[in-house]
Design brief:
The protein contains no helices and 7 strands. By secondary structure, it is mainly β.
């Protein structure tokens, strides 16, 4: 499976859209690469199923998105071929600084318990090796 990790800024506020019976958030993400006058911006459409985050996903917010990339080509009315880049996000992390009502650098993940933020597991202590009487 192909995975993509993107860091960028929202181009507009997230909106709720329906895909069949399931609702999701859709927003555009601008990712810049290059330096100085050679900066190029690539736009991605992001689909994320955590609709309760809509109020925090506003224009200009910086986020880190991990998900599956879907590339589709279409022909416009002008006869030109266009490439649509859509990411179906599994994880989203807020990177902005300041008090905006969400936890800084909080990561949200799609899973069965998608109503809860992802928690980092604490490392488990290792048991001391048992002396089995072998010389090596």
């Amino acid at each position: 499976m192909q995975r993509i990790i993107l860091r960028g800024r929202l181009g507009k506020d997230a909106e709720i859209v329906s895909f069949g019976e399931r609702q999701s958030l859709k927003f555009s993400l601008a990712c810049d690469h290059g330096k100085g006058e050679n900066v190029v911006t690539t736009w991605y459409d992001i689909i994320f199923y955590r609709t309760q985050l809509q109020q925090y996903l506003t224009k200009g917010k910086e986020v880190l998105v991990t998900g599956r990339l879907d590339i589709r080509k279409s022909e416009g009315k002008d006869g030109k071929t266009y490439v649509n880049l859509t990411v179906y996000a599994d994880e989203l992390e807020f990177l902005n600084k300041g008090n905006s009502g969400y936890s800084q650098n909080q990561s949200y993940q799609q899973n069965q318990n998608y109503n809860q933020p992802r928690q980092q597991a604490a490392p488990q202590p290792q048991a001391a090796p048992q002396d089995d009487g072998l010389p090596f």
